[in-house]
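Handout, section B. The chain below has 187 residues.
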Amino acid sequence: MSDALGTALAVSLRELRASRGLTGAALAERAGVSRAMVSRIEHGDVQPTAVLLGRLAAALGITLSQLIAHAEHEGGRLVRRADQQVWTDPETGYRRRSVSPRTGGAVELVEVELPAGARVSYPAEAYLLAHHQIWVVEGVLAFREGQEEHVLSAGDCLELGPPAPCEYRNPAGEVCRYLIALTVRRS
């Protein structure tokens, strides 16, 4: 993750928390993390993991993509590859590229590279707000959705079911690259 995006995520997290009238302690409780960790992230002292960002976004009532888009602050209908924001999880090496223009459109595209042997888990709350599909571009992805596991190879596409705790795992010895297409659910 670039230093600019890391700083922007810290600022966005503070802004979004405050706009919802939440204290740091309340956000920490909703996300199931310590108040100290929320404070350290908001002050830019630590780089949060993908799992932690997912939990915080869900606690704020938004998707991870919406949290990152808020941090990016830029609009426009065209975003060149060189200008697409890339974020890397410091714990797993999971690399997430925001492919879609940041105009708040109905569909968001996210490209992910999951290193060999890596795994990233998200709570069910992370899937409440968006309809997801996963399309594997290269490699193998073992995706656990609740109690069900799907093993996806290049070209396979999975539509997620009702929100459940999920885990993305790369069981192979090479990188797995996949695209996530999501639409925000309207109430």
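Note. The chain has a mean pLDDT of 88. Compare this with the example in section A.
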